[in-house]
Protein: CBS domain-containing protein
Organism: Oryza punctata
Amino acid sequence: METGAAGQAGGGGPAAAAAGEYWSEALKSFLDHIPVSSVPGALQPSPSPALEIRLDGSVPDAIDSMYHSDIAGAVIVDDVRTSFGKFVDRDIGFIEFPSLVLWAIKEFDKLGSGIGDKNSDFLTSLKQHPQIAETKIAWLAKSFLWEPFFPVRSHDTLFHAMLLFSKHRRINVVPVVELMNSSVVGFVTQNAVMELLLSSSGLEWLDKIADKQLSEFRFANANKPVSVYSDQTLADALHILSKEKIGVAVVDRKTSCLIGSIQCSDLYLLLDDSSLFRNRKTLNAEEFVKLKSKDKDISTENSSVSDGQSVLSLRTEQRKTAGLPVTNRKSDTLKQAMEKLTASRSSCSFIVDEHGRVDGVVTARDIISVFSPPCMDSRIDGGTFFSAALAQTGCRVEHGQMIQNS
């Protein structure tokens, strides 16, 4: 994957390398003067827009809470008192709704409960099995299903947030705090970063990189898409999604053409309509894509989402894509891909050829990495309590990554 300035993408000897270093420094200088508070959604009117999930809470309860709050991610909290009687680092991790749902389905199938009770909804089905119902959020750290708490402060720069996204590949959302150990006041998402970058369209430092064709970047050739045939089951697609966490392309078996996609952002539909969960082993991927497209007309008037939480909404933003996947051609520019991703709030775009066959995939993180010069030191620590919290689960943190003890 390309991690340097685009001027380095195609090689070109010492002159090109020098040009790449110049633009890396120019980028750093520009981005290091943009405060995080300028990122859309980074600061919200609510004092604490974050949904909080306790370490000792159960997985089904966490799914239930996030679903009914219409929130795609929540902060994991634990109350730890020092000898001075003060709370230290209450926020110790971040959990995403898709990770919980995919884990629950995988465990459900392990128990031999493949289809599920025809009279039970998704959450009821989970709670019928103690192995799932009694699993605590704290235990999931051992399975790497929740992320270290890597917040940025509101006065930190955009460059700081971009380094977190590009260097820590499992981080999709960066919480924003006013001060260390203070409450979360907002979130920085990958799409919000791209949206802010696009606001500089027309400036030479951005256009010199963003106006290059996707074919000029290494990720266009290195990223292989994951796919299922349209007649494979939804269960097959979910199994792949649980391993890859990148959108699964749905292709026609006869023509190999892209007809849709199944992404982590679609998983709330399994709770909206529990028949999808119950019938996942008989419903095929194409049928799910068609059902997904109908969801765009469903009203969200009764949603409990607040303005402060909308940047992590489960439902609202997905109306923009419905059942249609975001696509680009290799001849499209990086800027065109950025514009499509920000408009749709998607996490990836499938690269297709002139016949509609999938050649590759470009993710929001790929794009952000292009604007994050590799020469910068990205050693950023998580909360001081995080390592202690993981000790009881047999894990530790080294250089911003969770590692399971042998």
Summary: The mean pLDDT is 78. Residues 13-31 form the longest helix (19 residues). The radius of gyration is 21 Å. The chain has 17 helices and 15 strands.
